[in-house]
Amino acid sequence: MASVFERIKKFNENRLPDMVQLKMKAMTENAFRFFRGTCHLFYEDLSGVKKFPPSPQTWICGDLHLENFGSFKGNNRMEYFDLNDFDESTLAPCGWEVARMLTSIYVGLSSLEIKLNDIDELAELFINQYAETLRLGKARYIDPRTATGIVHKFLKNIKKRKEKDLINKLAYTEEGGYAIKINNLTHFKVERSLKKELKQALNSWLNKTERLEDYKVKDVAFRVAGTGSIGCKRYMFMLQDSLIKNKFIFVELKESRQSSLNPYNKIKQPSWLSQADRVIAVKKRMQNVSPALLSTFDFQGINYVLQEMQPIADKVNFETIAGNRKDLRSVLTDMATLTASAQLRSGGIQGSAIIDELTVFGAEEDWQTGLTLYAKNYAQQVIKDYGAYVVDYKKSLLDI
């Protein structure tokens, strides 16, 4: 049987080699970073489980974990806190989504050295709140007006940030104006001829887009963010208003690939025009409001998702609240509510269970213990796999 290291190399072999090396190194950081970068392992292992609690099929983001909730500005220009990564989205049993999230609670909070008994309590809190939200059958959303607890403080603080904060963070002034800061960690230079083609392609799109026809591409950089998507093509664009020279917008193009759940998911999927169409369609179904400028974009035969980058985009920093029991309970309650709400909101669409089915499932209790136990046990497998991966990764460096 192939080792964990070999399975990961195999999965990433058709991605950008230099970026894959960054990903492989990043996953040695801790078990949680490893877990975030190996969604495919989670579902490959899950596919071999014979007694997994059955659940209704719903739309799921596929890679739900503590880091895949965050704030963003919607197309109505209001701020929201919600699920925010749909690269792996698909129609699947809703229990898959919950199991991955529960596993992330065990792995992620263990990495912060929180006691196991406390993690058990937080995992129980999450699944109870998830089930209760389904049982009530009404999708909820979180914005600055409805947020409470730590998420309210979080949204209140980031709302104070202005566009100029993003400009100062991502760009610098040079003799000819502004340019994206290249740090060779998150932002990398783009080869000159490719940069020219990217500029031409996006400028053509801008000319045809209402509200953006006055903007032109000022600069382009290759972008690295997250963990699982490292190795895919991802570009950041700095757009400048041709009429108001000190007005800028940042957008990104993110390559869309087939969901890593596909080989293990037997549920028939819709026929999508492209993988980018899949990501955007599910995003719009599951989120209360979609991010600004959300669009598909084709470049050199590759499907991309285009969306605006925003000064308020951020995630809850669990390291800063690890010692605060009240804040941990508050944010996990919100995350459970949003998970169930996303499934309710998308209920009845192209094969997803209708709300009546989900409310019945939420009222049942026999599946909850099974899912939690699976996640708790699998978290130990993740930690074991992480240890083996680090050993093999270090050996691979010696072979170079």
Describe the 3D structure:
It is a single chain. The protein is of the alpha+beta class. The protein folds into 2 domains: about 5-160 and about 315-400, no CATH class; about 165-270 and about 290-310, no CATH class. Helices cover about 45% and strands about 15% of the residues. It contains 14 helices and 12 strands. Helix 5 (about 95-110) packs antiparallel against helix 6 (about 115-135). The longest helix has about 35 residues, at about 365-400.
Question: Using DSSP, what is the number of strands?
Answer: 12
Shape: globular
What spatial order of strands do you see in the largest sheet? 7-8-9-10-12-11
Strand content: 15-25%
Low-confidence stretches: none
| Termini gap | 24 Å
Fraction of helical residues: 40-55%
Number of domains: 2
For the residues shown, what is the average pLDDT? 93
Secondary-structure-based class equals: alpha+beta
Query: What's the story with the biggest beta sheet?
Result: 6 strands, antiparallel
Number of helices: 14
Radius of gyration: 21 Å
